[in-house]
Amino acid sequence: MINAGIIGATGYAGQELIRLLYTHPDVNIVYLSSHSYAGKKLSEVYPNFTGLLDMELVSMDAKKMADDCDVIFFALPHGLTADQISEDILNKVKIIDLGADFRLKDKEVYENWYKVEHSRPHFLEESVYGLCELNREKIKKARLVANPGCYTTCSITSLAPLVTGNLIDLSSIIIDAKSGISGAGRSINLPTHFTESNESFKAYGVGTHRHTPEIEQELSRIAGKNIVLSFTPHLIPMNRGILITAYASLSEKTNSEKLLKIYNDFYKNEKFIRMFPAENLPETRFVRNSNFVDIGLKIDPRTNRVIVVGAIDNLIKGAAGQAVQNMNIMFGISEDSGLDIVPTVI
Amino acid sequence: MINAGIIGATGYAGQELIRLLYTHPDVNIVYLSSHSYAGKKLSEVYPNFTGLLDMELVSMDAKKMADDCDVIFFALPHGLTADQISEDILNKVKIIDLGADFRLKDKEVYENWYKVEHSRPHFLEESVYGLCELNREKIKKARLVANPGCYTTCSITSLAPLVTGNLIDLSSIIIDAKSGISGAGRSINLPTHFTESNESFKAYGVGTHRHTPEIEQELSRIAGKNIVLSFTPHLIPMNRGILITAYASLSEKTNSEKLLKIYNDFYKNEKFIRMFPAENLPETRFVRNSNFVDIGLKIDPRTNRVIVVGAIDNLIKGAAGQAVQNMNIMFGISEDSGLDIVPTVI
Amino acid sequence: MINAGIIGATGYAGQELIRLLYTHPDVNIVYLSSHSYAGKKLSEVYPNFTGLLDMELVSMDAKKMADDCDVIFFALPHGLTADQISEDILNKVKIIDLGADFRLKDKEVYENWYKVEHSRPHFLEESVYGLCELNREKIKKARLVANPGCYTTCSITSLAPLVTGNLIDLSSIIIDAKSGISGAGRSINLPTHFTESNESFKAYGVGTHRHTPEIEQELSRIAGKNIVLSFTPHLIPMNRGILITAYASLSEKTNSEKLLKIYNDFYKNEKFIRMFPAENLPETRFVRNSNFVDIGLKIDPRTNRVIVVGAIDNLIKGAAGQAVQNMNIMFGISEDSGLDIVPTVI
Amino acid sequence: MINAGIIGATGYAGQELIRLLYTHPDVNIVYLSSHSYAGKKLSEVYPNFTGLLDMELVSMDAKKMADDCDVIFFALPHGLTADQISEDILNKVKIIDLGADFRLKDKEVYENWYKVEHSRPHFLEESVYGLCELNREKIKKARLVANPGCYTTCSITSLAPLVTGNLIDLSSIIIDAKSGISGAGRSINLPTHFTESNESFKAYGVGTHRHTPEIEQELSRIAGKNIVLSFTPHLIPMNRGILITAYASLSEKTNSEKLLKIYNDFYKNEKFIRMFPAENLPETRFVRNSNFVDIGLKIDPRTNRVIVVGAIDNLIKGAAGQAVQNMNIMFGISEDSGLDIVPTVI
To answer: Which CATH number belongs to the domain containing residue A9 in this structure?
Structure first.
């Protein structure tokens, strides 16, 4: 059994992690830490756990947790996790960081987009970007995994096969992304007050969203060329789910079947990536509560563009589910252990 | 392994059953029948099953299914299941009927509320009302289980402890019930068209809803006295969940603690019934996607009434989950096998 | 033209008032005060007013406003308005208080339910309870009108005809009330965070909601007898609308037609009360954005109870609309001036 | 007074038209025709009109209506309106067609996208494309106005100033559009069944949506050059509102202020177009129930693209409101008569 601790257990990603780890056959939850609710029982904060897990939430003590745990999941706002990471910790326990601190390889890019100084830049090289389908071999050996962002996971997996080869004009990529409101987290504020967000739709962070450099970094790595792209997130009045609609200009005339074959080959052994057949496109409900990425695409011959549509559950494949998948890979157990979930379509 | 067939597989209850049985460790799904979609693959109708279960949907052939299955789940509109039941079928296979045909013991009551003749009244006595927590011993030996209605399950479990003893005036019971729209099923019609039901709230079936006699039958049986009550259902603009608010006049002054103790004793070994502590009340999100019934109560000393609030997921404990629980009991396996689900609070 | 000022202009009731008064043919808006946003322009806080009303929000100065206004609307949390009321103010300007300070005639009842001392109890007798349809004559002459609560308006109008005569057992009244989330106001908190309230349903304030004594006070006055009743509010995951389902035991056998006739007679000249014909019941969408109260009822002969269903828009007839209706009455202009709105059913 | 008739009165656009015309100071509604509900009263189909307008719905008789009306609004599925139009009709009555039959100037383009033959192509040249802000002078003199589509109105107004001059690469335009579900109309079908569309998000009609050639036709006309663009619609789980996010590559470096100035100049006398200041972007709630188009934009210097965000209420400015605006222009009355609505932000 893997002894697991979660730091930041009462945020939405943290809570989802607890849900997934609680039913994971190979995991014991040994610590749940929460800054806001230390001293309370989990079921007082999240009554869905009533009668299931009545563990007390504790204050963060990363050193003690490192002694008692085999893996620690950090689910904290950016900047806070880096402060806790040290050679000593990494020698004792595997770290999966659901935050942004170790995702960007370039310290300056991080500081430029996050507007804070990075306190542990010397771990940036070692950390592995935990997009499981693309970095599996590195993850197996990693001490420190940077779990990707939600928009990022959906965007990169939806576009990765397209930036290999010479299929598209790499400067033409536009990602129009839409997310359910759980992506904004549990911290209360006016824009996510029910009556301010229900029955409305908006764009936000246009040109400035922090997932942009993360998408560019990974797609550039896969393409072997520097990619700069447009990324625009929007808020959908619903709880869960991300759908991205990506546009790119085709280098030459092709058809859906050819592109789908490239995608199917690229992801041929991937259990969590589901390619939709031609003329079929994902909807967020088809992946709800699951670890799947659903991808479909269409070619518009009038404009010679390809339109790729990808969908994930932002809290599962976009956060807690991929974190569990990373843990499974790091500990050499079946990659879908604890993640064998049929999406709840209703 | 239990070989299971589902008739009416593409309605919402049917689809939920497939979801639950697909991950059930002791079950093989061997038949899925669908009147509307026979010949199609399941994943064409429900793309959430893409890559998971690509079984072809077939036309109903109860006799053939009886030969190949250990259990058949019927999830059909009322009237249609009864026609399929025969001594021959029951000798071969266990039947769990998610419809209404065998819930009411009195043929006349059935025909009065459902406005159709009952085609197999001779099985009404044998059939067991499958509210697991109340009829477990009979279910163990049953050939034919009538899986309770959604409102019914929530109402009966929320009130059962209260109608025992001499706690309340049995003529004073009022159940004000509210359900998410999945309770209306998958058949399209104007009232459940998105723009006709979203952002609105209404009562329906006032004084005439068919779950009323079912609730009265079971509570009367438990009370040992004839109970007539008011039941008013409402539609909530959301997908899943039922919450009932029940009112009854107390026979004598008491307090929440005493009543909660009676409830806790009544349900002391029940894994799927969760009593909320004093001053805490259920919300539908705390049971979402799970097989739990959450119950809380409050006494209003001003009116000397008790107000009981119960919540379930209408598609799980109110339909497919309880059907699986019944199967587990009938086959002598762990009652929570395949139902070990942490509610998805978001 | 009536010069109007609003204190508490940026809460939801305040904003709705501005909307209604802006298009009111007989009103000039001369002051908008906001504690939180003084110094900002209205359209910065509520961009729906962009290009329409770019008035600057100011700090509250009731004395100055009394000099410049013909009417002041207070839309403040309870306790704050009372402090501003004085003989001097009332001699200069008509006051319509959308808060709770002057609704309850009995100081002790107020202090008991609101848990604060009343700072101006000497105005309780003079203040007129502004449920327009029931107190029109007093409102005409009032200096200080206490605009009723949202649940209260819906509950009282739905039950008033029933408590006259000897139609029901007055001790049997139960009001099960449901409200859209705008009723909780604009102050952010966890329960009204989008992802904590969307797709869920709950009861709250069971036995303790402050609208209870207000309903009891007015129904008792109408009945001429002391009424104590059960009132249970619930939150619906939608923006606007209240629906109440009220239960009462009939004194003798009757039928829907007779009761509907009593209601129709009671409200025969009321433009804003719409009685639904037998077998038809209100839905909140049928009154959305309008000042109507829709009422329907049904008799359940099995239990000899009447079930009354009432619906309003909580922000209009339940707050700002009724406030405008009160103003119209106080100033002797057409009662529906500025309120001639067809409900937006979609 | 203008005598108005509506054909297709019980669809969503028709119902909105009735709402707007009912309170329009210069209009008498004299006919409401409905194929599905002829013989019923309006308030039986739409109870929001209870007590307001109890007119009986009749079968379509365009000739008779032409005799009695000054204007007829057609709100029918494509193909049906064209059949009704004749020189005789046009000589008697002004026609505003909310459908698609007379929007596209080129018969072949129409037949290519709509897959039906056009029965009255000889009126295509005469008909005026009723985007009021762009074609006002022609509308004044028109006998037959083709009211634009919902996506179209939002897309064209959001991009018109950008395709004038040499600001962008005209081949680079991508419009990612999102609509509330009322845009799908009142006809029931599975995709708009509540539980199939709530809490989910999807793209549809990718590369094939019929509003595409309409947008291209008008933007090409404004640009004076042939424009081919990408248009992708999506469904948002909410009732009302369209938001489009449009992307285009800038011809040369510029900044938001310069572009906003161009927009402000372009729309300087337009009451219903509201430009948002730099760094502010529209949300659909800011225009809800109103006839406004809200537009904001941002420049992304990293990609040298401009991102324009536009929002409308699809049923008002995207259908019934613009139809009324067209009527106002055609009859020489104040353009905002009957449209003086403050958006209902909640």
So the answer is: 3.40.50.720
Residue D102: inside a domain, yes or no? yes
Question: Would you state the pLDDT for residue C54?
Answer: 87
- Residue pair C170/C227 in contact (Cβ under 8 Å)? The answer is yes
Residue B101 pLDDT > 90: yes
Interacting residues of C305 by C-beta distance below 8 A, sequence separation 6+: B174, B230, C172, C247, C248, C249, C250, C299
| Count of structural domains, chain D | 2
Please indicate if any CB of chain A lies within 8 Å of the CB of B315.
yes
- Determine, for residues D48 and C240 on separate chains, whether the beta-carbon distance falls below 8 Å: no
- Tell me if residue A154 is catalytic: no
Asked if residue D344 is part of any domain, the answer here is: no
φ, ψ (nearest 5 deg) of residue B119: -85, -15
In this prediction, residue A54 carries a pLDDT of 87
Of C195, C243, C307, Cβ closest to residue B206: C307
B163 to chain A, minimum CA–CA distance in Å? 25
Quote the ipTM score.
0.97
Is there a single domain that holds both residue A259 and residue A115?
no
Average pLDDT of chain A is 97
Given the structure tokens 């919402």, which residue do they identify? B12
Pick B197's closest partner by Cβ from D186, D194, D238.
D194
Taking an 8 Å cut-off on Cβ atoms, the answer to whether A230 and D346 are in contact is: no
Cβ of B50 within 8 Å of Cβ of A342? The answer is no
What is the band of B165 on the pLDDT scale with cuts at 50, 70, 90? confident
Predicted confidence at residue D165, as pLDDT, reads 87
In chain B, what is the straight-line distance between the N-terminal and C-terminal CA atoms, in Å?
34
Quick one: which of D293, D298, D220 has its CA closest to D259? D298
CA C226, CA C170: separation in Å to the nearest integer? Answer: 9
Q: What is the pLDDT of residue B21?
A: 98
Q: Other CB atoms closer than 10 Å to residue A114's CB: what's the count? A: 16
Residue B275 falls inside a structural domain: yes
8-state DSSP, C4: E
Query: For residue A282, what is the domain's CATH number?
Result: 3.30.360.10
This prediction has a pTM of 0.98
Last residue of a domain, one of D76, D91, D126: D126
The answer to whether the beta carbons of residues D339 and D20 sit under 8 Å apart is yes
Based on the fold, state whether residues A157 and A300 are members of the same structural domain.
yes
The contacts found for B40-44 with CB under 8 angstroms, 24 or more apart, are: B42/B9, B42/B10, B42/B18
Query: By residue range, what is the domain housing residue C6?
Result: 2-126
Residues D120 and D173 in one domain: no
Residues of chain A with C-beta less than 8 angstroms from the C-beta of B51: 271, 274, 292
Q: Is the residue at C54 inside a domain? A: yes
Token code pair at residue D247: 């992307």
Please check whether residues A219 and A267 belong to one and the same domain.
Answer: yes
Q: How many residues does this entry show for chain A?
A: 346
Q: Are C208 and C280 in contact (CB under 8 A)?
A: no
Q: What span, in angstroms and rounded, lies between the C-alpha atoms of B130 and B137?
A: 10
**C87: number of Cβ within 10 Å:** 10
* Same domain flag for D20 and D103: yes
* Interchain proximity A188–C186, CB inside 8 Å: no
pLDDT tens for each residue of A31-69 = 999 999 999 999 999 999 999 998 999 999 999 999 999
Tell me if chain A has a CB within 8 Å of the CB of D285: yes
Both A168 and A50 in a single domain? no
Nearest CB neighbour to A22, from listed B342, B344, B346? B342
Task: State the distance between the two ends of chain D, measured CA to CA, in whole angstroms.
Answer: 34
- C101 and C186 within one domain: no
- Stretches where chain C sits below pLDDT 70 are none
**Residues D105, D124: Cα–Cα separation, whole Å:** 5
Note the pLDDT of residue B305.
Answer: 98
Tell whether A118 and A194 lie within a shared domain.
no
CA distances to A52, B91, B138, C238, D322 from D243, rounded to whole Å, are: 43, 60, 58, 21, 17
